[in-house]
Design goal:
Blueprint (H helix, E strand, L loop, with lengths): L5 E6 L4 H14 L3 E5 L20 E6 L7 E6 L4 H11 L4 E4 L3 H4 L16 H8 L5 H10 L5 H15 L6 H20 L4 E6 L14 H7 L9 E6 L18 H9 L5 H15 L6 H17 L7 H12 L5 H12 L14 H13 L8 E6 L3 H15 L5 E4 L9 E6 L5 H8 L6 H15 L3 H11 L5 H17 L3 H20 L5 H21 L5 H21 L2 H14 L7 H13 L5 H11 L6 H12 L4 H5 L1 H13 L2 H16 L3 H13 L12 H14 L5
């Protein structure tokens, strides 16, 4: 075919004016074939482009089935020139071919994109500078996007960029891409009888003009030796907020809402209707936006465009006008305008029958069953676990978390109390489509994949506590097979682990698993047996495990003791509680036990009523004896005071003893002691520290005067407490 029959439309990706001009060219030329920039693998999903339920923004996703993370997205919006060319061709039964470096080459392991020169050419920037513009984007909008052009206009753009590119073709990746584009275009030219329209980025336009083609042999040499890798392709939903993210085109849009508005609205009504949208968004946010102000803002935008020498008002003029008139000069409402109107929350949709991995289809079915709708904007829901609908939502979201598909993230339940409520923040992001494909290697359904993934993670876990944490994740996901396998893994590791301190760190999460299982009405009897055995082993070996520890090891042991204290409290098991009290009681008088552990043990026994106040006072007096090293005394105090400050506030004797000890510390060691004491008291709230300071200021020997008991007031208080507990007896 004659080279004159090839019309190259060099566009800006996602440019609304470029899209209108492309449609004009297509109607005028009536091509026999349309070629669009994009990997040839997209030819396999062209048939879906005509479906009414393929609603942009959408993206073509090309990925490697063996390594789903090796993928590329090719987003398209209603205002994208590529999308409009594709839909026009499908509606008019015109064949379409995509032309670019095949994804089978670009996603192969051996393909190297790091051989790009340090400085890349910016022909648009140079053309803008030649026209007296400092902003290349603004020049392109004024020269191209705001001026509808036809074939002659695209030819002028091609000639201008060709002049800029004449000495800048040293990018190896670019040369391979354009050689691959020409290979497709040559095949199309040889097979059709009629004109061909090419839609590509403006930078590539000169390279795709037939009269500027290098020889076919040169292109073949450029593409020689590239490795190939099997890939899969499909359509996935995209969002307006992600149109600015990385894409196969390497181009993004910072204001997709504005571009969609420009494409859908006539030039003479564009600014007026935009201000209507802006005013509506402000009102929805409970901000004042009178109709008269919207009209005045539209007039101001037009005046600003005239003053700035622009053919018509753009987004900058509309934003400045809205700031001055509708926002009263305050920048805060501009964030509302940006989020709701300039960007928007549009989420595309794809047909149900489109090619997908089985896991993606099962996820869609599970989401419909649980009445979870994908949205581009973040929204918070509260699941009531006592209802079938709330439980179904919770189970699905927990299973997805196990698979690394973070559609939902745990959030505050909105002020609700109790363990029957769960808060979730839901937001569907396009990259989750890749996460679904990556997770599909574990199974064809969400339940199966989550089960296999959980068991695999348990077997690869390094520590027992990691398996227990994973078990805690599996229970709310309602995965009985995974739960059973993880309980066996916990039992096996607990039986073969001889490190008492390591076992201690696993007790609290294990106790939380048992308690959470009760709330979910799951059978945790076997797990309770494992935990019972674990606590008994720890109690038997505790006194030996904490002997002769240095400061760092003692800190770890103390954290383990705190974990076991929390676990025993959660379990509320009398036998285990007695065993634990007896085990801790052995530590307070055992030699070579770190002072911080002794102090923490004394505090636990005091809080539980297992030591009298007089006994504790005596132990504190001995711990603070001048005969003992100050650092050892500080470690004892640190362990003893861990918790809340009520002990010091309610017992002036203990506070006085502590004050007296600090006052007598030798000056030579005070500087070393101060950081330890500061760390101890930093755990208290500012209010608690303030009250302690006031007590010390007024004298620690001063005891509050006792007030006589008022029987009437006491009766009312007791009755009120009983009502809170749900009883009156």
């Amino acid at each position: 075919m004659p080279t004159d029959d090839v019309v190259v439309c060099g566009v800006r990706h996602h440019g609304p004016g470029s899209a209108r001009s492309v449609l004009t060219v297509l109607e005028q030329v009536a091509p026999a074939h349309v070629v669009i920039e994009g990997p040839p693998e997209l030819d396999g999903i062209i048939e879906w482009a005509g479906a009414e339920d393929l609603v942009p923004p959408v993206a073509a996703l090309v990925h490697r089935p063996d390594v789903p993370s090796r993928s590329s997205f090719y987003p398209m919006a209603t205002f994208s020139p590529e999308w409009n060319a594709l839909r026009w061709a499908v509606r008019n039964d015109v064949p379409v071919s995509f032309a670019d470096l095949p994804a089978t080459n670009e996603l192969a392991d051996a393909y190297d994109r790091d051989d790009v020169p340090g400085e890349s050419l910016d022909p648009i920037g140079q053309l803008a500078a030649a026209a007296g513009y400092t902003d290349a984007e603004r020049w392109w909008e004024d020269a191209v996007e705001h001026r509808h052009t036809a074939a002659a206009g695209f030819a002028a753009i091609t000639d201008a960029i060709a002049a800029m590119r004449s000495d800048h073709d040293d990018d190896p990746h670019l040369r391979r891409r354009e050689a691959a584009m020409r290979r497709v275009l040559r095949a199309v030219m040889a097979s059709v009888d009629g004109p061909v329209v090419v839609v590509c980025g403006a930078y590539h336009a000169p390279a795709l003009t037939p009269e500027r083609f290098p020889t076919k042999t040169a292109d073949t040499t450029t593409l020689k030796g590239l490795r190939r890798q099997k890939v899969a392709v499909t359509w996935v939903p995209w969002t307006s907020g992600r149109l600015a993210a990385g894409s196969g085109y390497g181009a993004g849009v910072t204001s997709p809402g504005w571009y969609a508005h420009c494409f859908a609205t006539d030039d003479d009504q564009r600014v007026d209707r935009w201000m209507v949208k802006v005013a509506r968004a402000l009102r929805n946010a409970d901000l004042s936006a009178p109709t008269a102000s919207a009209i005045e803002a539209a007039r101001l935008a037009a005046s600003l465009a005239s003053l700035r020498g622009r053919p018509r008002a753009g987004l900058a003029e509309c934003t400045d006008a809205a700031l001055a008139v509708l926002c009263g000069g305050r920048p805060e409402p501009l964030q509302v305008i940006h989020d709701e109107v300039v960007v928007g929350h549009e989420l595309g949709a794809v047909p149900e029958g489109i090619p997908q991995v089985p896991l993606a289809r099962d996820l869609e079915a599970a989401a419909r069953s649980a009445r979870l709708k994908r949205t581009a904007d973040a929204r918070t829901i509260v699941c009531d676990l006592r209802t079938p609908a709330g439980a179904a939502k919770s189970v699905l979201l927990h299973r997805l978390l196990l698979l690394g598909i973070r559609w939902g993230r745990p959030a505050d339940a909105g002020g609700t109390t109790g363990t029957f409520k769960e808060g979730w923040t839901l937001q569907w992001r396009p990259e989750l489509a890749v996460a679904v494909i990556a997770a599909s290697v574990h199974g064809g359904t969400v339940e199966q994949a989550a089960t296999v993934r959980a068991i695999g993670r348990a077997r690869m876990a390094e520590h027992l506590v990691d398996v227990v944490d994973l078990l805690h994740e599996c229970l709310p996901a309602d995965l009985p097979d995974a739960t059973g396998a993880l309980v066996e893994e916990v039992d096996r590791r607990a039986a073969t682990t001889h490190d008492t301190l390591h076992l201690m760190r696993a007790t609290e999460p294990l106790a939380r698993v048992c308690r959470y299982g009760d709330v979910r009405q799951l059978d945790t009897s076997r797990l309770r047996d494992v935990l019972d055995s674990l606590v008994r082993r720890i109690c038997a070996g505790l006194s030996t495990a904490v002997v002769g520890l240095d400061d760092d090891a003692a800190a770890d042991a103390r954290a383990g003791i705190d974990a076991l204290i929390a676990a025993v409290r959660l379990l509320d098991h009398p036998v285990l509680t007695d065993l634990w009290v007896a085990a801790v009681g052995k530590l307070v008088d055992r030699r070579r036990v770190h002072d911080s552990i002794v102090g923490r043990s004394v505090r636990y026994l005091l809080d539980g009523g297992h030591l009298s106040a007089e006994d504790v006072a005596g132990r504190l007096s001995r711990a603070l004896s001048p005969a003992r090293p100050a650092r050892d005394a500080a470690a004892w105090v640190d362990g003893f005071l861990d918790g809340d400050a009520a002990l010091l506030l309610l017992d002036p004797t203990l506070l006085g003893m502590l004050d007296g000890w600090i006052s007598t510390v030798d000056v030579d060691v005070y500087d070393d002691l101060l950081p330890l004491l500061r760390r101890t008291f930093s755990r208290y709230t500012p209010t608690e520290r303030n009250h302690i300071g006031q007590r010390l200021r007024h004298g620690t020997s001063r005891v509050a005067e006792e007030r006589p008991l008022d029987p009437v007031a006491a009766t009312h208080a007791i009755r009120h407490v009983l009502e809170l507990y749900g009883t009156t007896t």
